[in-house]
Design goal:
With 533 residues, this protein is α+β, with helices and mostly antiparallel strands. Strand 13 and strand 14 form a beta hairpin. Keywords: FAD, Flavoprotein, Glycoprotein, Signal.
Length: 533
Amino acid sequence: MASTTIIFSCFIFFLLCTSHAANHTQANFLNCFLEATGGSSSSPSKIYTPNTTSFSTLFRSSVQNLRFLSSGAETPSFIILPSVDHDSQAAVLCGRRHGIRLRVRSGGHDYEGLSYVSFSSTDGPFAVVDLSGLRSIEVNAADHTAWVGAGATLGEVYYNVAAASPTAGFPAGICPTVGVGGHISGGGIGSLQRKYGLAADNVVDVRLVNAEGELLTRETMGEDLFWAIRGGGAANFGIVVAYKLRLVPVPPKLTVFSVSRTLGQGATRLLHSWQSIAPRLADDLWIRALVIAIGEAPVNRTIQATFQGLFLGPRRATLAAIKKSFPELRVRAEDCNEVSWVESTLYFDGRALNNTRALLNRRPAFNSSFKAKSDFVREPISEKAWEGIWKVMMEGEEEPLEMIFEPWGGRLWEIEDDAIAFPHRKGNLYNIQYFMRWFETEAAVTARHLRWMRRLYDYMTPHVSSNPRAAYLNYKDIDLGISTEEGRTSYKEASAWGRRYFLHNFEKLAKVKARVDPENYFWNEQGIPPYTA
């Protein structure tokens, strides 16, 4: 209790320097939370305030997009670091009682920073519930399941699953530092998606703290809420503290490969062929494409397309499958590596294959600013259109803007578009992520990069889905629209982004929201409000 007294005393001193109304609200919240959690030896929770020595370090520890450190956005008045489920319950109960809203952060990869900053013009003090302390992983190899804390990273999941069984895997993303909590709740695409679907398709249970502070499971929350938090953004409905995952079978040896082509080597023709072939390959074969402008602009710049692939089988079978379905890619034996499934996750992240413990490193490879946007493509883009796209990309004077193409087909086409909240299924050939990274911190540099990103995105309009132009929630994009009035987002207003992320599932999501959080306590600038006709 001594540490509790010190924290509270220091915070009282901090309050003397701030407004009286805010003082009262924040002091009451802090006292409530400490009383609810600090008196139990089984609940060694911690709460940090801006005057706490380690507050800044903890806040920045999971800020993956540095542009939000200098964007003028509001930062939290508290960071809560739960160590048991009850801590999250206490945060909700005390937050509701004393007018402190919560934002939930697992890995901090939220593309627009909405898990840890606020752009609201009316938002009062808020707290970030940082789930990084909830990252226990319990693998049941015999049952082919795993209970995973929402604060774990994908790399930690991959490492622990492989340690329990070399022939078990989990279909999720290829960036190992991404937090499980946000990745799964938005859908979760990855290299096994054509065989086994999304990460969210393979969730069989959860533990969730709702807006009443209750700890619910699938059995007690109702199937509509369980449906919503798989692909609908779980932070709209509560705090998921753990997921129960269905593990999938993988062979002892897989094959990974990578080949690159420039425009002079036929990159345009290959990409044009890829967009029709890749979604219709055998489910065991996944080939994605990455396109970037290389060289100094504008005279010596060209386009390079890299095709990365994974086959659930040995090298010989891989080469035979590609020769049958995509021979013009001309993959050679020396382009291929036979690896275990867990080594394939290292391969796509550019790490050494012989160091699986690197998956336990939560620190991202880059510490930078970035911007991303997304699209879905339903009809092949013509070679002539690609040539126009390359021209726009090569004219840019900014840092390289990358386009990442993820193939659909297979299991993604077989699952109904309303089976879970994630709606982007049959009819889509592939997804595009537009991604730009920069290391300068000046506001003018950031603005210039954002303009360049938006220029290419606008140019792509005739070639992608429309009415609405669909977007992927995990590549969050506040250019689609935001609400800045805390808790007052209307259903009509939210449709601007909700229809694009969730298509026809948006209305059902809003109706679930109306049932489980009618006061919209779990509000954010691009959230789902309660449904109103």
